[in-house]
Design goal:
This protein has seven helices and eight strands, in the order βββαβαβαβαβαβαα.
Length: about 230
């Protein structure tokens, strides 16, 4: 059973690791298909002012229809970096519409706009799975995300020893838990060992949890109506 890296920017193939590789619509795809590397694409909120949004969204949709891209994102909201909040929300909502239209999972970037993320999910009545990557907030916020049907992905930040994040890690319901490397050089195996220790389970038991969760997202067999 493979380790699942639910969000990474590394295209390097690794034995025993299933990667969900994030690319941007202005990238060359440059990656061969295979069930050990699933591709997602989205407009990151940091870059909204730097691209032709309509053309970028059309590129993502084209990749989904062709089967190259299996999920939408990362996209989302960032209070620290990026254009004004209303512009971020508008672009985020376009990604949500695409996720719902093609029944694809959505990878969410969120920095200090957790309540807005939850509010938009409810407002748009989104039904597809969302993965909030790089979660780094409070236990109470994790619980609110889970109650809204949003999966929690923990990454390298957990290795820094933050007690608050450890408590989040310990208490995330297993069916909502994912792990990631994002843009770090940390091995996904190291993150698995850390999380297994915090949750007092074995790495193999943790791999079963994340494998089951991964399969429930439908990355491999998604988008039945994309043609």
């Amino acid at each position: 059973m493979n380790f699942i890296d639910i969000h990474t920017h590394s295209k390097t193939r690794l034995t025993g690791v299933t990667k969900v590789v994030n690319i941007f619509p202005w990238d060359n795809v440059g990656i061969d298909e295979g069930n050990d590397r699933i591709i997602t694409a989205g407009i990151h909120p940091w870059f909204i002012d730097e691209v032709d949004i309509e053309a970028a969204l059309q590129q993502i949709e084209s990749w989904i229809k062709s089967g190259i891209v299996k999920g939408v994102g990362e996209t989302g909201l960032d209070r620290i970096k990026g254009p004004k909040e209303s512009d971020q929300e508008s672009v985020f909502e376009e990604h949500i519409k695409m996720s719902e239209k093609y029944r694809c999972p959505l990878t969410v970037h969120c920095v200090r706009r957790d309540n807005e993320i939850i509010g938009i999910r409810k407002k748009m009545n989104a039904k597809q799975p969302w993965i909030l990557h790089g979660f780094n907030s409070s236990l109470q916020m994790m619980e609110q995300m889970v109650n809204a049907g949003i999966h929690i992905s923990l990454g390298p930040q957990l290795l820094k020893g933050d007690d608050k994040l450890k408590e989040v890690c310990r208490l995330v319901p297993p069916e909502y838990l994912f792990l990631e490397t994002d843009d770090s050089n940390v091995a996904i195996e190291e993150i698995y060992r850390k999380v297994a220790g915090i949750r007092s389970i074995t790495v193999d038991e943790l791999k079963v949890i994340t494998d089951n969760n991964f399969r429930s997202l439908g990355f491999i067999d998604n988008c039945p109506d994309r043609q």
